[in-house]
Structure formats: C-alpha cells, structure tokens
Amino acid sequence: MMQQRLTLANGLRVILNHDPQASRSAVLFNLAAGSHHEPKQWPGLAHLFEHVVFSGSRGYQGEQRLMSWAQAEGARLNATTLPTSTAWFFDITAARLADGFARLADMLAFPLLSLDAISQETAVIDAEFRMLSTDSDTLYEAALGVAFESPQALAHFHVGNLAYFGQDIQALQQALRDYHQRFFHADNLTLWLSGPQSFKELTALAEQYGSVFPASDKSLPPVVEPLRLKNQRAFVLQQSDNSRLHLTFALKNTHPQGRQSFSLLRQFFSDEAEKSLLAILRTLGLCDTLNLMVPYCSKKDAIVTFEFMLNNALQSCAAQVEGLFFHWLQALSQVGELNLNHYAMLAQKAFNRLTPVDRLRADAFGFPSITECKNDLLTGWNNLLSQLNTENLTRLWVAPVINAGLQTVQGFDLPLQPITWLADSNINAPELFFYPQDINFSANNIIPNNNIATPRLPEKLVILPYQTGDNDEGVLILGPELGHPLSLRWGYILQASLRAIIGHCAHLGGTLSFENIQGRWLLQLSGRQQVMINTLEAVIDRLNGLPEAQIAQGERQFQQAKQRMQTDVAIRCLLKGLPRLLSGESLEDDRSPSLPDIAWRAELYGGDAILQARVSNLLSRFPGAINAKAFSARLHIPPMTKHTFSTTSKDAAVLLFCPLVEQTAVCHAAWRILASLFEPRFFQRLRVEQNIGYVVTCRFMPSAGEFGLLFAVQSPTHSVVQIISEIRRFIGDMNEIIVDLPQRLFTEKCADLLRSLEVKNSDSIEQAREHWLSQHAYAPALTAKAISSLTQEQLMTFYQKLNQGVNPLWVLNN
C-alpha cells in the first residue's frame, strides 16, 4: 500500500491510500471537534449531531440517503464521537465508491437536521444512555474522569438523554445548526480515502467531493485544556463482574506522528510468547487477558490505559500485577533498535490484515500504521517511555467486594471512592525476554538465522486435500466437522493452551490462531515450510498433553465468557448463543475431563507437495479423527427452535434467524438478494418510522455452517412478543416489494452478486478461510451459474416459502 498527502484549495487535508490488491474502497471524514467541544448547556450535542446527520441531506433523501443506500449496496458504515474528534466512515466495493462518497460528503456539508429526525434520535440516544448505564466498559471509562482536574470536560456528561435535550426541539435544532456552522469548515476536517483506484483517480474524487466544504471562517479554534491529574491517584470501583486493574498515564507533548509509538507499545504489551509479561502473568495465575487503550487524545496530550483482567479480587493481587508491570517497563526501556524494528514489523503486519475501513480508523484515531522514518519513531518511543512513570499515573481497581458510596461522573452514578494504594515492593523479578532471538531480517520477511531442524515425522498420514496457489507459504485450516461441535468450554481451553505457541510463531514470521469464526472454532496456520512444520508439531504435542495450568486458564476464560453472555448488550448475547444452537452444541456445561474425541476437517492451501506430505504425516498424531471419511453435510434438524437466554438488560431483545428453505446454490443466491432488499427497508420501518428500538438490523449471515436471514432488534419500549410480531409483519409486507420488483433492479442485484464472486481477498489466510468455510457448509457455495439461472419467479417462490414458514425459524429472546 502506498500513501500520498495533499491539501485542497479550500484547506481540506487529504490522505490517499492506494492499494492495488484491495477488493473494497473506504472513506473516512475526521472532524477535529468532539464531545469536549459541545456547548455546556447542551450535553450530548456532539453525539446527537453524529446520529442525526444520517437522516438526510440536501442532495440525498429517503432511500437515496447514505444510510438506506449503503444498506442496499452491502456497504458497511458507522460513526463515532470521541472527546476531541468525530468520524464518519464506510467501505464498499470499488465500483460504488464515487456514489457513496458523494452521499457522505453531502451528508456532512449540507445536513437537513429536520425536527422529526432530531426528535427521533434524541429518543434513540436516551435509550442508548440507559443501556450504557449498565455497560461495564462504559462505566470503567467514565470513572477515569474522577482522577483528572483538567480538562474538566473529562468528568462532564456527553452521551446525552431526554432530560438534557429537553422538549424544545426547535432550540435543539438551532444548536445543531450552530455547531455545524462553527466546526464544519475544510481546515477543521481531514479526509482519508483508500482503494485499488490509482492516485490520479483518488485525487479526482477528493477534489470533486471534498471541495463542497467551505474554507475556514478564521475563527479561533477551541481551547483544549492541558491534562492535569488530581492529587488523589487511586480509586476503587465496585462492580459485580470480573475484577480489573486500570493503570492510566497522562502524557504530554504527544502529536499525531507520535501516536505510532502507541502501536509499537501495544505490540510489546500484547506479546504472548514465553517470558513475555502476559505469559508470566498467566503462569502466576494473576491475569489471563490484558488490553491497551487510548481513551483520550488531543493534538498535544493523550491518556493511555493499561487494562488487566484480574483472576483475584484481592488488592494484593492488583498490587502484584502493578509491580510486575513496572518491572516489565524497566526491562522495556533497555530494548535495542533490533528489538524495536522486530516489534514494529509485527505491528505493521497486524495493521495490514485490517479491512480497508478499519485501516483508516486506526490511522485516523486508533493505533496507526508505522510508516514514518526511524528517527521519528525512536523520538516518539523515547518520549512515550519517559512518561510512563508514577508521577503521571492514576489507578482504578475494579472489585466486587467493597462498600463504596455513589459519585456522579460523566452522568453515571458510580459506586466509586478513593483508596490508599499499597504498592508491592517484594516482587520476585522474573526473567523477561524480548525478541528477536537469533533472527535476521530481510527486506520483506523475518528469517531464522539457523535452519530449524525438521521434526521426526510419523509413518502414518491422513488424507489432506490440497489447493494449489500462487503463495509459496502454505495455509492450513482445520476445524470441527459439521455435526461435531467443539464445546465453548473446550474451545477456550484449547485457545488458552496454544497462546504461547501462537506468540512464538509470530516471532518466527508465521501466523497461528485458534479462534471462533462464524460460530466454528478454526485453527489457522501459515508461514514458511519449516515454521509451519515445527509450529504444527508443537501444537500437536501440546494438545496431546494439555498442562493443568492451561486447562485452568481456559476454564477461567470460559466462565468469564459465560458471564459476559449475560451482562453484555442483550442482542450481542443472543448473537453469541445462535451458533451454539445451530451447531447442535449442548448449552449445558461440558464437564468432560479430557478433550472430546471429535471429527475434524483439514485442508492445505498453497505451499508445495513436500509441505503437504509432511503436514499429512504430522496430522496423524492430532487428537481426533481428521478427514476420516468423505465430507457430507447433513443439516442439523433441531427439536426446538425457540430459546430464551437470560440477560441482565431491562431491554427486550429478539433475534430471528431464517435458514435457507432449500440447501441449493440457487436458494443461496436468492437469500442474498432478499437480504439486500430487506435490510434498508427493515431499518427504515422499525428504526426510523416506528422507532421501536435503537438496535435494528437485517442481513444475510453465515453461522455454524448454515446460511440465513438475520433479523435483530433490541427495544426499551416494546415486549418480546410485540417485536416478534413486527418482524413477522414486516416479512409478510415485503410481498408487495417482491411482486413489483422492477426487472432492472433485479438484474442489477444479480450483477452485483456476480461481481462479488470476482473479488478475491488479497490476504492468503483470509482467502483460504473463506474457501474452507464455503466448502464445509450445509448449502453449496455461491456460483456464477446459480446466480445467472435465478429468475424473478424463483425469487418470489423462495420468498413465499420464507413467509409461509416452510422451514422452522430460529427465535431467540431474552
């Protein structure tokens, strides 16, 4: 990927990313104003503005506005309001970039801000506020505001609700117009544009649609107060879920280029290999999961939070974790340029795996690409490390057993109080290690200095399907066969057991993962031949002799996942439950003492015949039968398709999943076209016109080997019965749309579907995974022949079978 920067005549800054291998294009507008810039008399105004602009603009209204159009075109779009910035973004097929870009630019330059839209979105945000009031992550971040004296806005209310928006919608409309007029000029905006198009084409699009914004009005930019901590530096927050420790640092003299050091820091911090900080914390049973966050970032200052998910609610445990963390920081300050280059390369490799729109988001306000020259990176790195000290530190300990009084912070009533922090000065300093270890670097790869000895291979072998490819590096995909689900508990145990091997593989230039994708646990391994063979041997050895410590770690992760499935946003809980039901997995806790003997399917992509032979030999030692018989998918017919999941949310949540009415490629094509017709209309009806809920979505979704139409709604005002009734009524009312569907539109939908088959993922692992999932599903993969043979009459027949309930529908609720 190559990058160019330019400034348009009106002052708009533009960053262009040309990626000739990309299958999609993406656009992001970043406004240098956020929740900290809204008028004090209108808390939540920036958040409301982020929402209400989607309701229509001067040039695009109704079904032509960005929201409706994007849903019909299969685009992914969203927006986010941060303390000092706001961003709107979407990605779409390259052929539709100009149409989407035109709508986004018009939406931001000429929003209608109608009274009806404002009234509707204030109700939506009010419901969001009530939902966020019970969301743990939101409350943890809000608690941060109690530790800062400046900016004072860190403690202010910014989400918004009806109590603050009030009843005078016209006054609120004027406030939104004033906000737009004040901030939406070109030199307060940055445009990010990415795609396979040439720089010339991207530049032309930027000039055409970026020029709609007025030049600066020369008004003074808003003053951003510097970060300043209070004297009290330690707090405890009472929460019933898992204990956590947040170590938060206030950083000064940061700048956009310096944020690259955050990406480098995260790579070091998240390392899972042996003798990393995380591996040591896991070995000691103190913490299994950690995270690095940047909850605040202005042009000069930033807040960085190190989050540790603690396995023990005692303060002594939290203090021990902090002691080990500072021991790690001290060791980190001694790393050399070779280490920095190595971890920077890994960070960039992870960045390159992101989708086009996620790359833009990471570059604009997340963890950016590491592209600057070495001196800039070193300067930012040294500046960052020098400020990670106790003078800039505030602590938040989250524990379930305390008796804290309520404090209102950012509009949330938090059981929060200051505490005396007792640091652990008796840390038994463990040996830490930073890579590389005997590794050389070439221009494009990480190469072990000495040849890795090939392990002794067993004489037995398994039948291993092999797909040739252009990539010299192979990709092995392995997952449970349909009808042989790996339970959630054992999935987490295997994941925990492989983490150190996953980390080591990354340092050798390979990629290993074991994760749940589309409701199926998949092992994915890629790299040069020696790396793959030795990593696979380590994986098999580990799975054939699971250590007690890793089993215990996986058990903890499983219990935490179960708890999250009750306390998370209600609709997410249902989404997590759906693939378990579809796969036939028992929802009762799996207490088997050893790894269940299940059937697996494995396939190799790329590499050569030698790699195939060696992998075939090694897999004969894998626990469980691999490719033991010809693959034949048999649809799981459930005895019951209605399930209730208990959640802590007071909202009603419903998930309706409608499987294909017949397991054919033609029906598969019809379902995708029905989804493109349903999605924008479902949102318009239940979210815009009826305002039933703030989570309203309809889409085509693969899950646990099954394809289906998904309807999902979460509502603070309607009951489960009412929501189900509205969804069924919507499906029935779509009859008129299908009957009157213009031939031109049907032809366009089929053409779009055909074009989607031509788009090949440039990432070899994702490409292999997509193929594996499509080949190991109940319905045949989508083909050009199936799409071309689909008629409008068939589409109507399939729709009628859906409407008549020919197949049982899965209904999940809370």
Protein described:
This protein is an alpha+beta fold and 814 residues long. The protein is 41% helix and 21% strand. The chain contains 25 helices and 28 strands. A seven-stranded mixed sheet has the order 11-12-10-13-9-15-14. The chain has a six-stranded mixed sheet with strand order 1-2-7-3-5-4, with helices on both faces. Strands 18, 19, 20, 21, 22 and 23 form a six-stranded mixed sheet that branches. A hairpin with a 2-residue loop joins strand 14 (406-409) and strand 15. It is globular and about 75 Å long. Residues 439-450 have low confidence and may be disordered.
Q: Any chance you could write out the topology, listing elements then pairs?
A:
Elements: E1 2-7, E2 13-18, E3 24-31, H1 45-52, H2 66-73, E4 76-81, E5 86-93, H3 97-109, H4 115-132, H5 136-143, E6 148-150, H6 162-165, H7 169-183, E7 189-195, H8 199-210, E8 228-229, E9 234-238, E10 244-251, H9 260-269, H10 277-283, E11 287-297, E12 302-310, H11 315-332, H12 337-352, H13 356-365, H14 374-387, E13 393-399, E14 406-409, E15 412-418, E16 439-441, E17 446-448, E18 466-467, E19 474-480, H15 488-507, E20 511-517, E21 520-527, H16 529-544, H17 548-567, H18 570-583, E22 599-605, H19 609-619, E23 625-626, E24 642-644, E25 652-659, H20 665-689, E26 695-703, E27 706-715, H21 720-739, H22 743-758, H23 764-775, H24 784-789, H25 792-804, E28 810-813
Helix pairs in contact: 1-4, 1-7, 2-20, 9-12, 9-14, 15-16, 15-17, 16-19, 17-18, 20-21, 20-22, 20-25, 21-25
Summarize it.
With 814 residues, the protein is an alpha+beta fold. Helices cover 41% and strands 21% of the residues. The model is unreliable at 439-450 (pLDDT under 50).
